[in-house]
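As a warm-up, study this chain.
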Amino acid sequence: MTLESAPGSSGYLDMFPDRRMSYFSNQYVLGLTVISGISGLLFGYDTGVISGALLYIKDDFEAVKQSSFLQETIVSMALVGAIIGAASGGWINDAYGRKKATLLADVIFTAGSIVMAAAPDPYVLILGRLLVGMGVGIASMTAPVYIAEASPSEVRGGLVGTNVLMITGGQFISYLVNLAFTEVPGTWRWMLGVSAVPAIIQFICMLFMPESPRWLFMKSDKDKAIAVLAKIYDLARLEDEVDHLYAAEEEERQKKNTVRYWDVFKSKEVRLAFLAGGGLQAFQQFTGINTVMYYSPTIVQMAGFHSNQLALLISLAVAGTNAAGSIVGIYCIDHFGRKKLALSSLSGVIVSLLILAGAFFGQSYGSSNSFYGLLAVIGLALYIAFFSPGMGPVPWTVNSEIYPEQYRGVCGGMSATVNWISNLIVSQTFLSVAEAVGTGTTFLIFAGIAVSAFVFVAIFVPETQGLTFQEVEQIWKKRAWGSSYNTESLIEDSSQGA
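Now compare it with the structure written out below.
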């Protein structure tokens, strides 16, 4: 069977272009995406709310105020939990399904929110952050896979990008909540505690949602899988999609039934896919995005705006820019492609980080602090404006579509773990590094990493826009085996046609 005639290939859509779906054409898929995307909202809220809450936690706990390390630990303990959650999330997804993994994440997140709100001291607060992080870690790798497996290939990028919009929307909401509770007794407890609300809402909604049709099919629950697919595709395309699933199932049957983490590194094509996916996740963090989101009020205060309320208000504008950029990304990712979007995003990120570095260098040596403070805020806004449409959604979208069915849960969990480990390293060290070498030098380091990220994307990340999962697999096989793969596939096609 050649790639052009493969069931489910984009050749079907070339023959019937009128059957291509648009983002809003199927309300069932869109509803599934939004409900699953509440995981992204939890992710975003958690990353955003701590930046404002930390200002008031320092006021309540003198030990936190006196220790940058304790501040970093309160922020980053959620990332430790997320690493645990993401690392175990791949196995949970493959063994029990995307739906049950999401429900488990909601329960853990809700428990963590309650612990944080009731924390009598910084150490119980840190425990609550650990629990919340575990829920976020499971959800962060589950939602993109769940959405991708139920999405038509022509709008898969935009639908997975909706999860990233929910992340940025959650960050924006967190700043609104932070502002709303600035004058309320128990400020930070309310800020952290209300995050249980969307988790409870998602838990209830997910009880009525289907399991991923691809997961059901591969677990031999074909009738349920086809029933879900029938709500997504018309009859002609449904038959085509089911044929593709049967072909994928047959291929998987010839492989080992159980995939272990080490197996990822034994297969050359899967190893290449994980290099691209894991590399994207690492560079997303090491270019500084969650440093900006976790510490944006602190950065604003470093730039000379010392009022807590003013710092939160400026940070709210930054978060609003982040959410707006994500909307742009939803449109662009399926129109211009993942790779071009990432490269253009990184170009702007590099320039923005250089502006930020220059602003803090100027503030250190110049006499006009207000000018350099304003320049730093402009640099922050530009950074978010360039980052959010590209390097925000692209790593999550690419990781939801580049792995073979057999490896999707495991590799998705591993790549999310890379993201959270990178996030932990950056957030745990930002304040300490800024104190040691200066804030300007710290942003200059981020700029250098962004240049490396640009080179990495240009060399290692393929374009997957509009491709089916089967077509994406062919990319890695060709990259792994080159001309020898083409020769072998021709021989196989010839023997099948005989």
